[in-house]
Structures are given as C-alpha cells and as structure tokens.
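Section 5: illustrative case.
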C-alpha cells in the first residue's frame, strides 16, 4: 500500500506528517518511507534519530516509479513542493494521497490544482483516494471549520481528524523521532493515531465518488 503526502504549496506539513504517520503505523509493523524531495528533509530527520525505530527511509529525488521501496507492504512517500511531475507520479501510484493544509485560505487556494490532477490520474489509477487534512491547527475552531467547509465546497474530501499545531512536533525532530516515539504521552499523538486510523479506513472502505 502506498500513501503519498502531496501539496505543491511549501510548508503545510508533508514531511512532518509523513514521518509522524510512519511512526504511528510502525507500531504495528515496520514501515518503509520514500523521500522524493531533493531537499531531503525526511532523510535528514531520520538521520538525526537518537535510537532505532521500525522505519526505513529510502532517498530517491528522481522518484523512479520502480523504486523497490514502493513494493513494501506499506510505503509512505514524501514529495517536494512546487514539483508537478512528482505530484503526478504520486497520484499515479498511490492508494491514498494525503494533502496537508494549514488552516489558511492561501494554502487551500494553492492546493486546488490537485483536484484536477487527481481526476486525470484516476484514469490510470482508479483506486486513488485523496484526503485533505488540516495540519498546524491553532486554537481557533471557527477558522478550522471555515477552511474545512471551503475545502469541501471546492471538491476536497477532508479528514474528520485534524492535527494541532504543537512545537513538540519540531522538538521530536531534534531527536530525529516521530512524536509517538519521542513523547508517547503527548496529546497530539492521539490526533496522529486517529488520522492514521482514518487514512487506513479510507483506503479499505472509503467510497470516493470521483473526488
Ligand atoms: N502539527 C505541527 N505542529 C507544529 N509544527 C509543525 C506541524 N507540522 C509541521 N510543523 C512544522 O512546520 C514546518 C513545515 O513542516 P514540513 O517541513 O513538514 O512541511 P512540508 O510540507 O514538508 O514543507 P516543504 O514543502 O518545504 O517540503 C516544519 O518546521 C515542521 O516541523
Ligand atoms: Mg517537506
């Protein structure tokens, strides 16, 4: 199964969610992650790890479609910002594309081209599911709800689970670890766990009527 994190907008949390979802999912079985970002942020985070975790990160900035990591039972793919070819490759391959959005209209607007790209990709990858997820959510529920509503109106399927903004995500990266390994009792871990559960459910059962 391939889950790719895609958003051509820079900075909504593709890499952080790739690594943190890998962390949660690796509690069940070892997880493979593929870093296709020429910046190599996921690789850099992993290289900082202060202890081993059941996550294997491969680095492939050219994003070859036959990379062996993509054949693993579960592969999470991190993609770069502003790189349409990589986004299209991810859409062509993935069972699920997660689209992190910060709760800002600017982020949402910049992400809209993905909807048309996904519609095109479905011609060659009919199993594709796409799920937007609000990340870096601060304590303003109204803003989160408004952006969620706008994203749905524009055609995104939006995860019920959102991920709070917390410096603990970056602090954990100082140790090169996903939050569930660095600070298992941190409240944000439950949000990440719920997101992982929802993502797996969408792949297993999620109806996706063309959007
Ligand atoms: N939920 C969160 N709470 C707090 N900080 C976060 C959260 N998610 C991500 N960040 C931080 O926000 C910054 C951007 O996140 P990240 O690098 O994962 O985004 P990205 O989409 O991969 O960016 P790029 O497009 O440059 O690859 C990082 O410093 C990261 O640690
Ligand atoms: Mg990144």
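Designed sequence:
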């Amino acid at each position: 199964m391939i889950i790719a994190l895609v958003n051509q907008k820079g900075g909504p949390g593709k890499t952080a969610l790739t690594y943190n979802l890998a962390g949660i999912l690796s509690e069940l079985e070892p997880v493979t992650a593929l870093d296709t970002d020429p910046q190599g942020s996921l690789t850099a985070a992993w290289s900082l790890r202060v202890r081993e975790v059941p996550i294997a990160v491969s680095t492939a900035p050219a994003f070859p479609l036959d990379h062996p990591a993509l054949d693993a039972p579960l592969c999470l793919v991190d993609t770069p910002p502003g790189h349409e070819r990589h986004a299209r490759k991810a859409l062509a391959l993935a069972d699920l594309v997660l689209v992190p959005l910060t709760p800002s209209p600017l982020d949402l607007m910049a992400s809209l081209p993905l909807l048309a790209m996904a519609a095109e990709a479905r011609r060659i990858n009919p199993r594709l599911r796409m799920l937007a997820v609000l990340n870096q959510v601060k304590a303003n529920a109204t803003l989160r709800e408004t952006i969620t509503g706008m994203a749905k109106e524009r055609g995104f399927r939006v995860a019920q689970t959102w991920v709070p903004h917390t410096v603990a995500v970056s602090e954990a990266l100082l140790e090169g670890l996903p939050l569930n390994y660095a600070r298992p009792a941190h409240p944000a871990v439950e949000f990440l766990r719920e997101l992982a559960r929802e993502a797996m459910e969408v792949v297993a059962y999620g109806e996706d009527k063309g959007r």
